[in-house]
Predict the 3D structure of the following.
Amino acid sequence: MNDPNVVVMVIGSIFLLLGLGFVFDFKGFSVKRDAQNKSKVVAGLLSMVGIALILLGLYGLSNIGTPPPPPPPPDDPSVAFTSPEDGAQVGREVTMRGTWKNVPADQLIWIVGLGGDNLFYPQDGPVGRQANGEWQSPIIYVVGEDESTSVGSSFNYKVIVIPASAADQFRQLRSGYDGTSELPPGTVVHDSITVTRT
């Protein structure tokens, strides 16, 4: 009888029997016509307490072995730019910064530029994640096909999350300054900014 639910039920049964003892004659089980209101009240209270304890014990027993509810699912990953701001004017070299949250360790945060040819150009990466929820990119060179025409031009950058298995593909594209029309499967684009070269 180590189960507290069983103990509660036993105590409830005792209370119920005591309550019934005020009404029934346990020797002959004949009904007593007790004219004293006090005895009736005591009998009713004991019976109600007993029934309540028995029900409480049964409820506890019914939940034995029930697994606890699963923990709430984690929030979706989120990544955003904080610097430079969208619409900012920047020089030839810029370090981009932002915030990140709930990005798994087997996924990487990377910055890609969207060229005028609608190809994605991976920048040096991945970005460095910090424990405080911030990230910082390597130096980004804000340069188009021709340095002389880059000044005054607008450049669009996106911060994305890619599977770690796609890192080699991005590094190969970067080494040849090549773009790609399709991002790796599983890529999620999180934020985008457009800056103007000064």
